[in-house]
Amino acid sequence: MFLDGEPDVARLLLRDLVNETIGFERLAAVTGKPSKSLHRMLSAKGNPTMDNLTLIFGVLRRELGVEIQVQTVAKQSTLIAS
Description:
Radius of gyration: 16 Å
Structural class: mainly alpha
Order of helices and strands: HHHH
Mean pLDDT: 90
């Protein structure tokens, strides 16, 4: 969602992931960021810096034991018949 031009949705999905897994209190403890600041960053109108997003993704990767991968896919062009 971040890479596809939908940052509002991406922040909300990331917020839901934090809520359903490690929780904001644990994220705050590990990152050293106040829980309320993290909630604001990951709101629909939040504006987290790249440094904060990197920090959050890093914590989630470690805490959940997952690897994040991004793949590119060539976009298909649409032909219009006349």
